[in-house]
User: Fold this.
Amino acid sequence: MATVSAIPGDESHGTLRTTGPRLPVTRSYHQPVPLESLKTRIDTLLDRAPAPTVRLRRAVAIAVVATQALIAVTGSVVRVTGSGLGCTTWPQCQPGSLVPVDHPEFAALHQWIEFGNRLLTGVVGIVAFAAFVLAYATRPRRKHYLRLAFLMPAGVVVQAILGGVTVRLDLLWWTVAVHFMVSTIMVWLAVLLVHAIDEGDEPPVRRGPAGLSGLLLASIVVLVGLLVAGTMVTGAGPHAGDPKTPRLDIPVETLAHVHAAFMFVYLGLLLAAGVLLRTGNSTPQLWRRYVVLIAVVIAQGSLGFIQFWTGVPELLVSLHVLGATGVIIATATLWCATRTRAIAPNRIPTPAGT
Assistant:
């Protein structure tokens, strides 16, 4: 029991003091919420919310593919219009301003072209984050699908940083090349994300005739070389993004021939894959996707030759980049058709989530 006493010699003579057990002290501020607790709260909210439908998840995933391809094309527009340094710094456009401003050295059009490309990055990020949220909200949760979905917003962050590095290094050709190659990887992963919606976490099972996967894997390796050679042609060519940017000191004709050689090898591997599909154990889906891929590759190769013979006009450069994303999408789509991942019986979604 608490008692009351006056303590002699104390400055507060006669002040009543209590002795005994102390009452608990209530702090006026909020304790930080641990990450694990926050994750639990989010999971609880998602469990109560309606499950995202397959149609919605697929639509958003396709939007991720489209926006990732689009940002690569708009990047080429920035380059061919000489607007790469329209915004001279990053993340600001001009020192002291996030948006374009009147500047004696940089035309307003160039500033807005570069700034518009940066704004589109925000749209790409929103769509990518939406895809991740939908994957996280899917029940039961599937690791393969969730990992691919997580890579979408993570990749946008990486690309934004690379874009800033590219600007700060004044568009050095190899920084532009790395920036583009990461975009191609993101387009490929986005296609895998679309197919992962209907897949589970079981080990992949091959489909199609024997040897097809090996031929396609070899063609993918050659495709990487084809794309890298294409970035080098760009690095040595006339469209640097800014007139003062140093170019790759190798003759464009030499690099163009290397680029074409990769294309012929890639096409040859695809033709060999076509023979396997026609003579082996194929499916209508595999053949349809193969025909689409061959058509896209032939159109892209023809466009490349026309572009070279006509002096690399600006419009054809951007169309060629669009064609490159089309080849990547068609190749990834055929690759996905050669393998499938089954959903474990105990992880099949309920009708409410379909």
Summary: The beta strands are 3-6, 16-19, 205-206, 339-340. The chain is about 65% helix and 5% strand.
